[in-house]
Design goal:
The complex is a heterodimer of chains A (about 120) and B (about 300).
Chain A lengths: L4 H13 L11 E5 L5 E2 L5 E6 L9 E6 L11 E2 L6 E5 L6 E10 L5 E10 L3
Chain B lengths: L1 H15 L10 E2 L2 E2 L14 E9 L6 E15 L2 E14 L7 E4 L3 E11 L4 E10 L14 E11 L13 E12 L3 E2 L6 E2 L3 E10 L1 H8 L11 E12 L9 E11 L3 E10 L9 E8 L1 H4 L1 H4 L1 E2 L2 E2 L6
Antiparallel strand pairs in B: 1-2, 3-4, 3-17, 4-5, 5-6, 5-7, 7-8, 8-9, 9-10, 10-13, 11-12, 13-14, 14-15, 15-16, 16-17, 18-19
Classes of the chains: A mainly beta (about 120), B mainly beta (about 300).
Chain lengths: ~120, ~300
């Protein structure tokens, strides 16, 4: 029985560690609109990315480029006022083509994550 | 000579404390590489293997089962110290011998990431692991201290051309270590044991579902599949001295890792690839915790100031 004590101790520690805690961590994207890699038929009014944690507004950015590497978003990248884990930027009416979204997210604990993805618009 | 040492130390600390974007866990550029179950990963991190479980295949001596714990703490953004410990159960193969168990030897490690390339999703680290021989139970633990310098690497394949777009979520990590016993022989008389130098090496290949869905194409996988990493690790150990010289043990370890915001879970089969390694399939599991994310105000402190997540 004594040989089981270390195992029981480890299991108890596991229980403590996975108990609910108030904390922050890396922010990784959960989903986006437009969806990553998808082709849509109507120019979206904005690009929105939902993250799994709250973001620091001052250093979290999102930009959109066309296939000629020209920035096409309205330059008003922001963390949503309603949801601190959502990053968005407004778009003008975009022509058919391929677009690339670059994002950088600073989580509340200052861990930085970044990434990019593309979406396409095709004529109806 | 003293001047040379001072220059080397000065250069080391200069590089170690260079201001850098914060790195933690396995994040390099837009890629997250989780900790693997079999091979040491290349990232110096504030993290804890809260619980490891390893039931090895039966080999010529018997079967070993271990429960373990490991803790690592960064001293600088690129330098981490670690300590690990296992409790070992051993079932001997020969009739008349009985199952035995006891504490293994503690392991102390140092890991330094000396090269990171965000653009190439690559990292290269050097490490030193010391197993303190004779500290654990005499029934199951090695009596010799082993000193193991090691190299670790990690590399994502996100730089591949767009024609290979669905290959981009793959990443590789690997390690190479030379395990040097402090003494060639331990024990006396019939109990005398030769301690060989061994090479341990391996590579892990994993596919990142999060990378696929956030960078390549959102294929619509929801929880819990959107945080999964199918993985296969290959690990080898080759004695380079002693009677078992060049008798390489080899394992393939296919499995699955799930990485959440604060905790990572993993399960792998341990499949022997030759007769030296055993005959049936073993299993291993891992509960891994990102302690600087869970307790940022405790585990980001160092004698030189706060690193990683900053204090608020």
């Amino acid at each position: 029985m004594r040989s089981l004590y270390p195992i029981l101790l480890l299991v108890a520690l596991a229980g403590v560690a996975v108990a609910p805690v108030i904390s922050e961590g890396h922010a990784f994207p959960i989903r986006s609109d437009p969806r990553v890699g998808w082709t849509i038929t109507v120019s979206p009014p904005k690009v929105t990315i939902w993250f799994d944690g709250e973001l620091e507004p001052a250093f979290s950015t999102i930009t959109v480029y066309n296939s000629a590497k020209q920035q096409v978003d309205k330059g008003n990248s922001r963390v949503s006022g309603r949801d601190a884990s959502t990053l968005e930027v407004d778009l003008p009416a975009l022509a058919a083509g391929s677009y690339r979204v670059y994002w950088k997210a600073l989580a509340k604990d200052t861990h930085v994550t970044q990434g990019d993805f593309s979406f396409s618009i095709e004529k109806k | 000579m003293k001047q040379l040492s001072a220059v080397i130390l000065g250069a080391f600390f200069t590089f170690a404390f260079l201001p850098a974007e914060l790195h933690a866990h396995g994040v390099i550029g837009k890629r997250f590489i989780p900790s693997t179950l079999t091979l040491e990963d290349p990232f110096p991190s504030d993290e804890m293997d809260l619980f490891t479980f390893d039931r090895a295949p039966k080999d010529k001596e018997g079967r070993e089962t271990t429960f373990g714990f490991e803790f690592a703490k960064r001293l600088t953004p690129d330098l981490a110290l670690g300590v690990g410990w296992e409790y070992i159960f051993f079932d001997p193969r020969e009739a008349g011998e009985y199952r035995t168990s006891g504490a293994g030897n503690p392991e102390f490690s140092l890991k330094y990431a000396f090269l990171r390339s965000i653009e190439h999703e690559g990292i290269l680290s050097a490490g030193l692991v010391v197993e303190a021989g004779g500290v654990g139970s005499k029934r199951v633990a090695e009596r010799v201290t082993t000193i193991s310098p090691a190299l670790y690497f990690g590399k994502g394949l996100g730089h591949l051309p767009d024609s290979l777009t669905y290959v981009k979520p793959f990443s590789m990590t690997g390690s190479f270590a030379v395990n040097n016993p402090a003494n060639r022989f331990t024990g006396t008389g019939n109990d005398k044991e030769r301690n060989p130098t061994t090479l341990s090496y391996g590579v892990a290949l994993m596919y990142s579902i999060p990378y696929l869905q956030s960078t390549i194409k959102d294929v619509g996988l929801g929880a819990p599949f959107d945080r999964m990493f199918p993985v296969v690790e290959f690990n080898f150990e080759t004695p380079v001295s002693g009677p078992e010289k060049r008798h390489t043990s080899a394992f393939a370890n296919p499995g699955l890792i799930w990485a959440g915001r604060y905790i990572q879970l993993g399960l792998e089969a341990k499949v022997p690839m030759n007769n030296v390694s055993g005959k049936n399939v073993g299993v291993k599991g891992l509960i891994h915790v990102f302690i600087d994310d869970i307790w940022p105000n405790i585990f980001t402190w160092t004698p030189w100031g706060v690193i990683g997540p900053t204090s608020r």
